[in-house]
Automatic annotation (TrEMBL):
Subcellular location as annotated: Golgi apparatus, trans-Golgi network
Entry keyword Thylakoid: no
Sequence segments annotated as region (Disordered): 1-41, 58-91
Provenance organism: Cladophialophora psammophila CBS 110553
Cellular component annotations (GO), alphabetically ordered: cytosol; GARP complex
One of the record's GO molecular function terms: syntaxin binding
Stretches assigned to the Vps52 coiled-coil domain: 161-329
Coiled-coil regions, chain positions: 184-218
Major subcellular site: Golgi
Protein name as annotated: Uncharacterized protein
Keyword flag Coiled coil: yes
Family as reported in the entry's similarity comment: Belongs to the VPS52 family.
InterPro entries on file: Vps52, Vps52_C, Vps52_CC
Keywords annotated in UniProt: Coiled coil, Golgi apparatus, Protein transport, Transport
Length: 677
């Protein structure tokens, strides 16, 4: 390696060496010609030291020249140093490194003047003996003894010690690298084992997945067949010992499902040992379930007869919640189911009868306004009257027998809750007859609707006619109670507006039952109408008769006719002068007609008795007014009198609406126009 460098350096021209000079590190020795370079290197190398020129090569080889020397090809011309890599800037100066190795100036430093002299002397004594530079360098030359105070041997020992330490460090690094290599080898072997285990696990996973798929396919095929001929122990225990709850109901459904499957397979003549073993067990479970269902329903029916019990709570929490148990009983033991159903009907019949009986007594305690013969259109009120139905009740406050007033609010109210019994008993105010009628029937309709819903769900296996018959049987005494209440309210009253209000309320109840789809109370509604309409016609006939009985005034008793006029005060002669004013009966008739028209706005028509009754009443009124007009004097006064009365009636009924109201307004409008001419 060094021989190549020297050869290349000797063959290179001086110009190339000068061009490479800036790339080489500084040397403390002066430059000589090429003949002096080789002996200098040879002499120093013989002492085991590195010359100034070779220090750079050593430094580069220690840092970065190893690769360059082994990989770079030999250059044919010029020195190979220009192809070497330049050391990084942070590398220490090789001269300083040599100085640190050789020591300070007193051990190895040579004065500059002495160095030149020695170089001059050495250059004179060099004799290569006709050898080439390679041969000269290759030959062994004994080291020149140190002189002039050099301590080369000491430096060599120090360098040797350092090199030995460096060798030891390299050996330790080799040992560490050997251990690392061993660890990596073992790690590679372990990775191979892990890879083999992973492959084994993958193979086992594939096998397990295949087995799982096969098992699922088999279970899909055999599962339903096995379930059809088996019964879980939990189901058996739930029916035999468990409480009556949702679990018990599910167990009943499972038992019925297995029974249907067995019956179907028996019809197909499938003889299976599992079916023969399961059928006796199912029969025993059915018998046990029927027994427990019977005891449970009977206990709940007995609870309904407890005092102060709310039947709807038991119905919702027991009967309707577990309605499937009665259906199971009806399918598997119809006779027992019919007996239990009849026991329920009898219990609820007693329940509603007793509760509505107490409620009717509470409504009877209400004070009702009394309407007698003095409350007719043609009757004159006496100075003192009795306004009560019985002597035991205190007299109610006075009332207007011909004006509807706010009594119509009972039809328009959105409150559909009947008054409680204790509030009815404590009430001290007087009411019209429609108040107890509405409260009793509203409570009855609500209970009928609720019970019909319960019966429909509970006895779902029964037909429509059977369900309707049960509900009617339950409420038969209650319906009779309601009819008696209605009959007692309207039988002896002349409150025509009150009776018509009850008719409209009864129609409202009929519409509500249709909306709720409860047909079982139709007979009750129809019979109530039978009680109300005849009484309405009777009262209307009484009003007509009272108008006919009004005495016709004559010339001698014109003052008496004037006494009936709306203008009061003054002497009889003054009254005679004012007899063209509207009559008192006209005011009553107008208010009464307005009330009937308001109540007939929704349902009035030719198919009701109201229209015919109004025609009769209007005819009687016009006949009476005609008779009264004859006592007014000449024709102009008679026309004025008739105009005033007809105009007052038309004004009163002007705010009414409906077909019937339009007919009446058209009629009286025509009379007013006729009298105005």
């Amino acid at each position: 390696m060094w021989l190549d460098r020297l050869t290349a350096g000797a063959a290179a021209p001086s110009g190339s060496r000068e061009s490479l000079a800036p790339t080489r590190p500084y040397s403390p020795l002066p430059r000589k010609n090429s003949q002096l370079a080789a002996p200098t290197q040879r002499t120093v190398s013989g002492l085991g030291l590195l010359a100034t020129r070779s220090s750079t090569s050593l430094d580069l080889s220690a840092n970065t020249s190893t690769t360059s020397l082994t990989t770079l090809p030999r250059q044919p011309n010029g020195s190979s140093l220009r192809f070497e890599q330049r050391p990084p800037p942070n590398v220490p100066d090789p001269v300083n490194v040599i100085k640190s190795i050789l020591g300070n100036s007193e051990h190895g430093a040579v004065p500059e003047g002495w160095s030149r002299k020695q170089d001059g002397e050495i250059s004179k004594e060099i004799d290569i003996g006709g050898l080439s530079l390679e041969e000269f360098v290759a030959q062994d030359i004994s080291p020149r003894p140190a002189g002039n105070g050099f301590r080369v041997e000491i430096s060599a020992k120090e360098n040797r010690q350092k090199f030995e330490e460096f060798h030891k460090s390299i050996a330790e690094c080799d040992q560490i690298l050997t251990n690392v290599e061993s660890y990596l080898t073992n790690f590679k072997a372990e990775l191979g084992q892990v890879s083999a285990e992973i492959e084994n696990l993958q193979a086992r996973s594939t096998q397990l997945n295949a087995k799982l798929d096969n098992r699922r396919n088999v279970e899909k095929l055999l599962g339903p067949a096995v379930e059809e001929v088996s019964l879980s122990p939990f189901t058996v225990k739930s029916i035999a010992e468990g409480p009556i709850d949702e679990t018990f109901v599910k167990a009943l459904k499972e038992v019925e499902a297995r029974s249907f499957i067995i019956e179907a397979k028996e019809e197909k003549s499938e003889q299976l040992k599992a079916l023969q073993d399961l059928k006796p067990l199912l029969e025993d479970l059915k018998i046990k379930a029927i027994e427990r269902i019977r005891d449970y329903i009977v206990a709940q029916i007995k609870a309904l007869r407890s005092p102060n019990i709310n039947a709807q709570v038991i119905q919702q929490q027991t009967f309707l919640r577990y309605k499937d148990i009665y259906a199971f009983l009806a399918r598997n033991h119809p006779v027992l189911a019919e007996e239990i159903g009849q026991a329920y009907v009898n219990t609820m019949r007693w329940y509603y009868s007793s509760h509505f009986s107490r409620y009717q007594q509470a409504l009877d305690a209400l004070q009702i306004h009394a309407f007698d013969q003095h409350d007719l259109l043609g009757s004159e009120a006496p100075p003192t009257r009795r306004n009560v139905l019985g002597t035991s009740k205190p007299a109610p406050p006075p009332h207007d027998a011909f004006s509807l007033g706010r009594r119509e609010d009972v039809l328009k109210s959105k409150n559909d809750t009947a008054i409680p019994a204790y509030l009815a008993e404590e009430s001290k105010s007087a009411h019209y007859l429609e108040v107890p009628f509405w409260n009793f029937n509203q409570a009855l309709i609500d209970n009928v609707s609720a019970e019909y819903s319960v019966i429909t769900e509970l006895f779902s296996t029964s037909t429509y006619h059977q369900i309707s018959r049960r509900v009617v049987e339950i409420f038969e005494p209650t319906f009779a109670m309601g009819h008696n209440l209605t009959k007692g309210l309207v039988e002896n009253t002349n409150d025509c507006l009150g009776v018509l209000l009850c008719v409209r309320l009864n129609q409202h109840f009929a519409f509500e039952l249709q909306r709720r789809k409860v047909p079982v109370a139709d007979s009750y509604i129809n019979y109530t109408n039978i009680l109300l309409w005849p009484r309405f016609q009777i009262v209307m006939d009484a009003h007509c008769e009272s108008l006919r009985k009004v005495p016709a005034p004559t010339t001698s008793n014109r003052g008496a006719a004037a006494a009936f006029s709306l203008v009061s005060g003054g002497s009889s002669s003054d009254a005679s002068k004012t007899s063209v004013a509207p009559h008192a009966i006209t005011q009553r008739f107008g208010q009464f007609l307005q009330g009937i028209l308001l109540l007939g706005a929704e349902a009035g028509g030719d198919d009701e008795p109201v229209s015919n009754s109004l025609v009769r009443l209007r005819t009687e009124y016009e006949s009476l007014i005609g008779k009264l007009a004859k006592a007014s004097g000449d024709a102009s006064k008679r026309a004025k009198f008739l105009y005033n009365n007809y105009s007052l009636v038309l004004t009163i009924i002007s705010d009414t609406r409906g077909k019937l109201a339009d007919e009446q307004k058209e009629h009286f409008g025509g009379l007013v126009r006729e009298m105005k001419k």
